Amino acid sequence: MFRFAKAPAYLLISALLGTSVAAPANDLSSLPDIGTAAAATLSIEKEMEYGDAYMRMIRASMPVISDPLLSEYIQDLGHRLVANANDVRTPFNFFMIQNRDINAFAFFGGHVAIHSGLFLHANTESELASVVAHEIAHVTQRHLARSMEDQARKSPATLAALIGSMMLAIASPEAGIAAIHATTAASAQGQINYTRSNEKEADRIGIATLSKSGFDVQAMPRFFGRLADQYRYVSTPPPMLLTHPLPESRITDSRSRANQFPARQVQTSQRYQLARARIVARYAGIDNNAALDWLERQARRGNAVMQDAVNYGKALVYIDSEQYEKAHALLDPLLAKEPNNRFYIDSATDLDLHQKHYERAIARLEAALKANPNNKVLRLNLANALQEADRSNESIPILTRYTYDNPNDPNGWHLLAQAQAANGRRDAELAARAELLALRGAWEKAIQLYIQASQIVEVNSLDQARYDARIDQLRLARQRVANL
């Protein structure tokens, strides 16, 4: 699969803070409905607006992983959990950031970010799911909105000042944290208590969501306990332990709550292990030899599923280092055993394109799409393969439909801009590039590109009317953000 350069800057978002009301350990249904209280500060609609603005800033400043296979995996995992969560009031969007630090965070509007480094420490899918379920609970319990309401009550600062401080924290963590302290009168101890209350509440609700979703509930205390032991004496713990502190009481509490649910044996997740191997091979920030060494160590302790994942990861390393025969030796048996596995199809496509076997790659993808015609990974792979084969004109209808169905995916717009440029459609290329800029919150640049596109096409044509209408939409979007 094609890959894009990542933004060089990396930012750290503060933990979600807020008050909570304790519930009996054996009665999860008695958790309070806090939506009304939080709504006094911030409506769901306004949260959605802030979340959209935050997400655009993150795309512009963080190394967001745009890998379609990994995006599909983390979205599927997240929505499996959301389907079994309570008090879901917003859509959810799950995405990954390339960073070796162990961390995850959630913010307004149902956005949940997972660091790639988390995969290196979560041994099972249930352990990863325990972290994601915890972050989902932060959103469903509206911890950020509740924290803002509490701070607004205790401080003369306005809601706008509080939100502005949090927005600044995304752009510049140190400055943002200083601004939050300057605009709130709550004591440091009070903030710590709110954080601990929220963390325990998110653990409690997350464990229930884990159980209903078919995961191993013991994964949460097991994973958290392992992290606490591993980093107990280090001077600088990972960001996850700074924003999600793990005192012994919290680990004990999560273990106690997990014990209230029936024990469940969960089979090794092939998709998780394949995603994990893909991250090690391509997104762990380590060289090829270190990646191969990590994979070898996993092979010695794993079962047949793990061995397949290890071979898959090694094949990726060999593809990226142009050792194509070694890659074939590992990948061909995997593909023969599971010809419909999208991880294997994607990598076989990579291998074919590197070796200029374009028609073979296209034929494989077209056959896979007959069985799964709407799959995003396969559609993007086919469009990319067509472009590599100098058949860009055939990729344009695929990408036009794809960007219509998935307007927030930069992959589609990037490929569409390339295809339009290859076909000499300068106006359409500018429009696709403008959409990429808009996804990063670069409103003025996006508008200027659409103005250029409108000036190129025939006056009073349908294309000009479409471009002008989009200019109006972008100006409204820019004004909404300015109003925030």
TrEMBL record:
What are the residue boundaries of the Peptidase M48 domain, all occurrences included?
A: 70-255
Coarse class of the primary localization is: periplasm
**Example GO biological process:** proteolysis involved in protein catabolic process
Q: Which residues form the signal peptide?
A: 1-25
GO MF entries: metalloendopeptidase activity; zinc ion binding
Spell out the catalytic residues: 135, 203 (proton donor)
How many cofactor units bind, and how? Binds 1 zinc ion per subunit.
Give the binding site residues for Zn(2+): 134, 138, 199
| The protein's required cofactors | Zn(2+)
Which Pfam families does the UniProt entry name for this protein?
Peptidase_M48, TPR_19
Keyword entries, A-Z: Hydrolase, Metal-binding, Metalloprotease, Periplasm, Protease, Signal, Zinc
Family assignment from sequence similarity: Belongs to the peptidase M48 family. BepA subfamily.
Q: What is this protein called?
A: Putative beta-barrel assembly-enhancing protease
The opening ranks of the lineage are:
Bacteria, Pseudomonadati, Pseudomonadota, Gammaproteobacteria, Vibrionales
